[in-house]
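Tip: read the tokens left to right.
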């Protein structure tokens, strides 16, 4: 099992009727996720420290967007938005994010966002 703590997912989440095949974040050389359903956040400029300066802007403005499109990245609050008449997951994610929005005042928190998940480009 490649998942590493603290990015593991509880059995309750894995066995959930509506959320299928979602994995936690798996750190790999060169990125955080290289498999479908993995967390796929775009690295911040701070996280690109040490990268050549002439790559940072194209990565942020062009290539990460292309990669997200290829991987079919959607935000967690969009999962099951129109499937099986189940709106709970999207509602939960939106409620959770609104509660966490104020967390960006904590020094160690860089940003708060809905988890971007690679779900495949056939969605």
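Filled-in amino acids:
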């Amino acid at each position: 099992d490649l998942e590493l703590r603290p990015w593991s997912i509880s059995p309750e989440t894995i066995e959930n009727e509506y959320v299928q095949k979602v994995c936690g974040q798996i750190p790999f050389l060169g990125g955080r996720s290289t498999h479908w359903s993995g967390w796929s956040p775009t690295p911040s400029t701070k996280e690109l420290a040490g990268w050549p300066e002439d790559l940072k802007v194209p990565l942020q403005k062009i290539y990460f967007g292309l990669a997200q499109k290829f991987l079919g990245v959607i935000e967690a609050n969009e999962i099951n938005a129109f499937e099986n008449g189940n709106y709970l997951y999207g509602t939960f994610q939106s409620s959770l994010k609104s509660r966490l929005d104020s967390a960006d005042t904590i020094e160690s928190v860089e940003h708060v966002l809905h988890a971007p998940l690679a779900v495949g480009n056939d969605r």
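The two ends are 25 Å apart (CA to CA). Strands lie at 73-75, 116-118.
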